[in-house]
Amino acid sequence: MPIPEGDDGTGAGRAAGLTLSRAAEATGGRVVGDGSFVVRRISTLRNGGPGDLAFLADRRYAGDLAGCQAGALLVSEALNGLEGGPRDRVVVKDARRALVALLGILHPPATRSWIRHPSAAIHPTATLPDQAAVGAGAVIGRGAVVGRRVRIGAHCVIGEGARIGAGAVLHPQVTLYPGVRLGRRVIVHAGSRIGVDGFGYIQEKGDHIRIPQVGGCIIEDDVEIGANCTIDRGSLGNTRIGKGAKLDNLVHLGHNVEIGARAMIVAQVGIAGSTRVGEGVALGGQAGLVGHLKIGAGARIGAQAGVISDIAPGQVVSGYPARDHRRYLRAMARLMRLSRLSARVGRLERRLAAAEPQREEGVQGG
Amino acid sequence: MPIPEGDDGTGAGRAAGLTLSRAAEATGGRVVGDGSFVVRRISTLRNGGPGDLAFLADRRYAGDLAGCQAGALLVSEALNGLEGGPRDRVVVKDARRALVALLGILHPPATRSWIRHPSAAIHPTATLPDQAAVGAGAVIGRGAVVGRRVRIGAHCVIGEGARIGAGAVLHPQVTLYPGVRLGRRVIVHAGSRIGVDGFGYIQEKGDHIRIPQVGGCIIEDDVEIGANCTIDRGSLGNTRIGKGAKLDNLVHLGHNVEIGARAMIVAQVGIAGSTRVGEGVALGGQAGLVGHLKIGAGARIGAQAGVISDIAPGQVVSGYPARDHRRYLRAMARLMRLSRLSARVGRLERRLAAAEPQREEGVQGG
Amino acid sequence: MPIPEGDDGTGAGRAAGLTLSRAAEATGGRVVGDGSFVVRRISTLRNGGPGDLAFLADRRYAGDLAGCQAGALLVSEALNGLEGGPRDRVVVKDARRALVALLGILHPPATRSWIRHPSAAIHPTATLPDQAAVGAGAVIGRGAVVGRRVRIGAHCVIGEGARIGAGAVLHPQVTLYPGVRLGRRVIVHAGSRIGVDGFGYIQEKGDHIRIPQVGGCIIEDDVEIGANCTIDRGSLGNTRIGKGAKLDNLVHLGHNVEIGARAMIVAQVGIAGSTRVGEGVALGGQAGLVGHLKIGAGARIGAQAGVISDIAPGQVVSGYPARDHRRYLRAMARLMRLSRLSARVGRLERRLAAAEPQREEGVQGG
Fold first, then answer.
1. From residue A282, how far is each of A305, B320, C196 by CA, in Å?
2. Do C43 and C70 meet the contact criterion of CB atoms below 8 Å apart?
3. Which run of H or E residues covers position C194?
4. How far apart are CA C193 and CA A260, in angstroms?
5. pLDDT tens digits for chain B (366 residues)?
6. Residue B46: how many CB atoms within 10 A of its CB?
7. Chain C nearest CA to B51, separation (Å)
8. 3-state secondary structure (DSSP) of residue A204
9. Residues of B with CB below 8 A from A157's CB?
10. Which residue of B has its CA nearest to C344?
11. What does the alpha-carbon distance between residue A123 and residue A141 come to, in Å, rounded to a whole number?
12. Strands ordered across the beta sheet of A300-301
């Protein structure tokens, strides 16, 4: 096989360097000390070295200023008066926001050519613009439509008739089942499976007969999906993930699940079929939701919570079955002290038993 | 690479259309209205359009009949008298069963040729019938045996000596470790790993020394395995999934696990080594079973249940540690009211304290 | 595509046979009976056949000796006097340790040539020794460095600049994101994703803006990682798995997690960002740890435990929120008897109510 010079779909970027002056300019901040000092990396206060720009955005880490070995410091205005730390500085309003901006500059997306690796298998009926990258071994099925500036990683399999919006990035080994639709700028991490046939059967003489799963799977703009997730297609109708929602790794969504815009779903969450999750809902790691529920907008479901009934908008729940988070934690704390309550009841019984015979004697004696 | 016209292993099917007369014929039903009306899709009452056949199989959805926009209705005989909904109809005994039949007709399996994609790497000692499809980039190892009418998706890796029964379907990127056996008509979804070396070590001077995992992994006829599952091979002896069992996505089975025929295992369940699950057992999502247990036939394990001891046949359990489902839910409800019980005990203590001194005084005074 | 005679990366080994005499020699044991008897497989007492060496290392299985069909027996000295079982024997100090040694002999690692499959896409700037195997379709990115005697399975994708230590084994379809470092003799099972971008966002006008994830991911010597795991790279700084730690299947580690040497992490565990797990910690299946925790060396976290605060060294916990294991189980047992406690309180209330009016009457009567 010919070995290409260019992009092989392994997905790396390139790091550059910048001066403190340019860093201040990019973040609306000001330089203290040597503006020509060049930094190549951003670090924490603890792990910074001579060429690094350490950052301080939270007073809790101020204690790390003393031993900091970094060459320069990115610091929030409010924390700039604290003692210790590098003298050459960029002082900004909010060091955390500035950090994100500078990371984007120091680690720009790969500026590689829009190469199609010769080992990719692209169906002649697929639509693929000049400005799209296709990694080694990727397979693009019949009638698939790929948008501009899309990057398809090595060994991705794009099913028949699937559509990928402009600017989307698929890391290696992603599967899109036939007919799946990804919006613009969607990011899918390695090994996620989108549009899988859902878990639907009817019983017939004791056997499970598969209900054909013929619905769609729609991932809206700006969604990010972690690694090794499984998103089922609709049974009838669609599974849908709303604009800007973010999924961590190993998340499972059953058929016809609907995720509202900007929801945040942490790793290993599982959501059973037809459950609708409102806008901006946050689901903690390993939480599980049974099917056919409605989770109101802005609700927060704790890590490992097991939700078996609807949740009102804005509610905060945890535990199995999930309840109000604070009530649940208090109840569990009480549970751990249950032996004491039990002992108190035992004492009451003994005291009352000691009291009653007297009284009975008194009655008898009366 | 030459671009094939035919099957590239991305897995799509084709949709057709049918008349209400043919739909009635296929389901043992009768037509009301225009038997020549053509439908192309089955929909819910809510999302149906002019070319769709909506269905009503459950009285709870009767309220959706009024606004239904679908062109025609598939309805159970018992619900046919309800008001509203499309006039052109197929009336059947059980609309849900009829639905499955019609979905199979409207969305037939792909009728594509039995092509081997030229990029597949098939070992010369592997056995592969003419009637078998091999997707782009698939790898079939030394001595593997593939049955008739098998479909191997793009980028699957079939280990040395593995055997795949007639009519099986492997979606893209599945891994069969060496020696794995799949029965007839088995379906495996994208990214599942079957026959993985199990988690077995002995301690030696504080280090963990791997116990070679040399057992087999046998998946019987008509099993379906979801996406991104992990099924370990036996340590010694076999891991086995019984005939007709169904696994959802992201399920983990440890070494030497045995799953009975027709068991249903919902997404993200984990079963530790050597546990035996009886026939027809149902496991809810995210349930976990520790190793070396026996789960009796027909038992039902609730979502997120944590099972740490044997379960009798037919038992219904939930919670951690798993208990009788209804007792568990009642106990959790009581737990949430524990503050009230605690308050009652407090009142008793105060009342008794108030009573006792009087009595003591009485005694002293007596 | 040319079909190679040699290694295609499917990963099989070869089994051989050995005499009881050689088995005794290899395990420091002694032969009883026919030392020239050849065994080809090790089995349990139950599933052994005429050519098998069954083993008995635990008195609990002594009852299986009676019906054992195996040709020969590997038995611990202390259990050799028990009745029944094969007469031709290898008697050793510890049959479990001997078992591991003999499995290594009966199932030696594949002794195949160091072949690079012609369909692999190896970047010209990658470093690859003669003694390394690269499976079909594998992709090795720009500047990657592969050590001696490394085996890279079919369809693995090795990101730009990644480094793989000598003797490491990658099963099929593994992804190393750019810059990941694997130590010597690391084993990674099929479909695991290492160095994934972590789950980090800042809020900006209600949207989630990705924080570029620019840290590293370091897997130290002798680590084993199961199938379909997801290991995030550091946000800044590194994610790190310490020497000799073992991960089962479907484990998730968030960004900047640190796992101590020789930790054992069972299937489906999830650990959120920046949590540090000490040396030799054991985590049960499906356990979950929230972020920024410290788990002390030697702690044991039960299956399904939900850990939301630091755990002291050596502590044993379970439940959600995780507590001392024995206290938790006792509390749950008490919870299941809560109805009885409630009934006792009810009886106390009635008895006291019956007692109080009398007294009040007495008072009134006084």
1. 12, 24, 21
2. yes
3. strand C193-196
4. 27
5. 333 344 566 544 445 689 999 999 999 999 999 999 999 889 889 888 998 999 999 888 899 999 999 999 999 999 999 999 999 999 999 999 999 999 888 887 665 678 899 999 999 999 999 999 999 999 999 999 999 999 999 999 999 999 999 999 999 999 999 999 999 999 999 999 999 999 999 988 889 999 989 899 999 999 999 999 999 999 988 999 999 999 999 999 999 999 999 999 999 999 999 999 999 999 999 999 999 999 999 999 999 999 999 999 999 999 999 999 999 999 999 999 998 998 999 999 898 888 765 544 444 433
6. 13
7. 39
8. strand
9. 9-10, 136, 153-155, 172-173, 190
10. B345
11. 5
12. A132-134, A150-152, A169-170, A187-188, A224-225, A246-247, A264-265, A282-283, A300-301, A316-318, A323-324
- Sheet of strand B306-307, all strands in order from the earlier edge strand to the far edge: B121-122, B139-140, B157-158, B175-176, B193-196, B230-232, B252-253, B270-271, B288-289, B306-307
Alpha-carbon distance A177 to A154, whole Å?
A: 17
Q: Kindly state the helix (H) or strand (E) to which residue B42 belongs, with its residue range.
A: strand B41-43
Q: Are C47 and C53 in contact (CB under 8 A)?
A: no
Interface of B with A in 48-77 (CB under 8 A): none
Chains A and C form CB pairs within 8 A to the count of 222
C260 in contact with B, Cβ within 8 Å: no
Give yes or no for a contact between C189 and C249, defined as CB atoms under 8 angstroms apart. Answer: yes
Q: Are C168 and C128 in contact (CB under 8 A)?
A: no
pTM of the shown model: 0.91
Task: State which residue of chain A sits closest to B320, comparing Cα positions.
Answer: A320
Question: Quick one: tokens of B297?
Answer: 């036939």
Q: What distance in Å separates the CA atoms of residue B318 and residue B76, rounded to the nearest whole number?
A: 35
Q: Is B4 exposed, middle or buried (0-12, 13-18, 19+ CB in 10 A)?
A: middle
Picking from C215, C148, C146, C135, the residue whose alpha carbon sits closest to that of residue C179 is C215
Helix residue ranges per DSSP H, A64-154 = 95-106
**Which residues of chain B lie closer than 8 angstroms to A155, CB-CB?**
137, 155, 173
Which tokens is B155 given? 């980028």
C200 in contact with A, Cβ within 8 Å: no
What DSSP letter does each residue of C56-90 carry, written as one string? Answer: E--GGGGGGSTT---SEEEEEGGGTTSS-S-SSEE
**Residue pair C307/B306 in contact by the 8 Å Cβ criterion:** no
Which pair of structure tokens corresponds to residue A203? 């019983």
Which pair of tokens denotes residue B16? 């057709």
CA atoms of B172 and B12, how far apart (whole Å): 12
Give the single-character DSSP code of C311: B
If one counts every other C-beta atom within 10 angstroms of the C-beta of residue B123, the result is 22
- Spatial contact of C247 and C241, defined as CB atoms under 8 Å apart: yes
CA distance linking residue A84 with residue C60, whole number of Å: 65
Strand partners, A277: A259, A295
Please name every residue paired with B55 in a beta bridge, in sequence order, or none if there are none: B74
Give CA–CA dist B277/B289, Å, rounded. 10
Element (H, E) at B329: helix B325-336
Report phi then psi at C126, rounded to 5.
Answer: -75, 150
Structure-block tokens of residue B236: 């010694």
- Report the gap between the CA of B207 and the closest CA in chain C (Å): 7
